[in-house]
Fold this sequence. Notes:
This protein is mainly alpha-helical. The protein has twelve helices and twelve strands. It has helices at 8-22, 43-55, 59-71, 108-117, 124-140, 153-156, 179-189, 212-229, 232-248, 286-293, 330-342, 346-363, and strands at residues 24-25, 30-31, 41-42, 82-83, 193-195, 201-204, 208-210, 250-251, 256-257, 260-263, 368-369, 376-377.
Amino acid sequence: MASATGAGTSGLRETVRGLLAAHWRAEHGYSVPNPGTYPHLWLWDSCFHAVLWAKLGDGRAAAQELDAVLAGQLAGGMVPHMRYGGAGPDTWLGPLPGTSSLTQPPMFGHAARVMSDAGIQLSAATLARARAGLDWLWENRRTPEGLIYVVHPWEAGNDHSPRWDDWGAPGRTSDGYSRSARTAWNKERMAEVSFSADGAACWSTSFVACPAAFNAYTAFNLRELAAITGDPELEARAAALAEAMDEQLWDDSEQLWSDLAVVGGGPSVSIPISDGVMGALVTADRAKARAALAQLADPARFGAPYGPANVARSHPAYDPDTYWRGPAWPPLNYLFQQAFRRQGMDDEAASLAKLTEAGAVASGWAEYWNPDNGRGLGAVPQTWAGLVIAMQQ
């Protein structure tokens, strides 16, 4: 993918359009994140693709991406985190032949909001399916205290995060990190997951957690869908979830939202990661939001030349080159910017957009990159790096 350095906004847009088009699979109706590394559909990736197509003015492709996400919805309402295509199914993801049995951050509410704001007509069926997906989380994945839980690290989106270290996962940074060992451990955890009649994962005997970021994403998407449907119940659920986060997950010592261990786990749930800022997307507490967001530009915490590091740079777990152990991630930066804008922090939002653009271009439009030098990591190029165009003012 050619660099867009110096090409301005129009050059960025054409670069991203070309990236999405090169990864488009007409027979499936979606763009794959990366044809070699990620040949399937992933829930939040395709939701971000819908956002990008909408920003590029292609309502047809945006609608196809969002409908492709929701086409995998199970009978009970869960939206799977993967639909298989290309290379065939990953059978260790559950009992279903065409999709995984796990879910992922429900970014379809936000995708629908962006599309609606762009003047793209959403069908009643699409909106109903998005509502059913959020209903499923609310009705099937909520603790008695009102938080949303996940039953596998893959569901959280940050599957190799140091916050999961105390579940017995191998490859701690202090021991010499091994991504392959951690991936094997994640696969083994599927043997402890139980499933409902429609194939949806419902519990685990070894790993259950209430991640701060996943709760924030759910509340955010409830609110986004409510904004276009006018549904007061969705808005009330978003407010209740945000309040539960503030009461149960706010870590005053770190000035971040931390995760809660339900089955397994330990102190690692409080390791300072940038995902702990995501409560700023939904909290009604302005002081908490600003205290967390301020850390994204602080070099002693997450601040770095190519966008926020995923782990506090002063923490022993920080490794800027290792998957979910320190690199900068374009989808997180995009969501941080959403939080900045919600808090009226427009200068900070604009600054983050520039850092993210610099990282995307320097990395070759990578899946993630070293926040200190912009070196591309993971799959290169990856479609969600194109979120830089959605961050432009």
